[in-house]
Write a structure and sequence with these properties.
The protein has about 270 residues and is α/β, with parallel strands linked by helices. The chain contains seven helices and nine strands, in the order ααββαααβαββαββββ.
Length: about 270
């Protein structure tokens, strides 16, 4: 299955002002009606996601389907370990509830009409800025799309700061001063060296540790200081060159692939 990000990049880039908003909303309304889906907003508000709701700055997230749950591969760099440990794993294990269905419909809409999707997404970001003044945006709550290539003009919207986690090696991601990327370490052997590339260049890397809620994280990982990534999801405020430590959750507690790392300093 071809990766959704590569398909969108080949057809784009797409501009939030590249299509009249009224036309884009009509397309979205018809698309939803065809699938019997009512919810109109693409972005989830700060209270719709437990982790994003911890952030001091209002944080909005775009929740698309993980993996290939929607019929489109939205995480081309995923591994068996991260797929199994994904906190949204029920969305691609045959348990499509209303929330998972919403993610799938949004992903399908993006694939079918990215120009309309990006126009609506840009309008929702601007609306959130008008409401709060300054906001954070996570475009890949459960996906791993290269938005810096798909819709780079989104990052120029005043008042919005963007961040995401990614499994993609540094050489496969573009740079934008308003888009903070944190590399997510997997069970693959080369993932450690890829993480070190991010860290040594002043970037950040996220590591899931075999640590339960309430227990302390390791102080270091491969010589780099570890900060507690469960306190807040606002990665834009992280110091340069630190490891974002995360405690194993849900199915991650049963990991046997090596995706979840031992909870000891290294």
């Amino acid at each position: 299955m071809k990766g959704l990000t590569f398909d969108l990049e080949a057809r784009g880039p797409f501009d939030p002002d590249g299509m009249p908003l009224g036309d884009a909303r009509k397309v979205w309304k018809a698309f939803r009606a065809d699938r019997g889906f009512g919810t109109a907003d693409l972005l989830g508000d700060p209270d719709s996601n437990l982790k994003l709701g911890k952030d001091a700055v209002p944080t909005y997230g775009l929740s698309l389907s993980p993996a290939d749950a929607s019929g489109f591969e939205s995480c081309v760099w995923r591994t068996p370990g991260c797929t199994a440990a994904c906190v949204l794993s029920t969305s691609f294990r045959g348990k499509l509830d209303s929330v998972a269905t919403a993610r799938a419909v949004k992903t399908q809409f993006l694939a079918e009409d990215p120009a309309a999707f990006v126009a609506i997404l840009g309008a929702e970001i601007r609306r959130a800025v008008a409401k709060h003044g300054n906001i954070l945006i996570r475009l890949n709550v459960a996906s791993d799309l290269r938005w810096e290539y798909i819709a780079p003009s989104l990052f120029d919207i005043p008042g919005a700061s963007f961040y995401d986690y990614t499994k993609a090696p540094r050489k496969h991601r573009g740079m934008h001063p308003n888009y903070r990327l944190t590399f997510s370490v997997s069970e693959r052997d080369r993932s450690v060296s890829e993480a070190l590339t991010y860290l040594q260049s002043g970037g950040t890397a996220a590591v899931v540790f075999d640590i339960r809620k309430g227990s302390a994280l390791p102080e270091t990982w491969n010589g780099f200081a570890v900060i507690d990534g469960d306190v807040t999801d606002a990665r834009v405020f992280d110091p340069d060159g630190v490891v974002v430590g995360l405690r194993s959750k849900a199915d991650g507690r049963r990991d046997t692939t090596g995706f979840v790392k031992p909870g000891v300093a290294s």
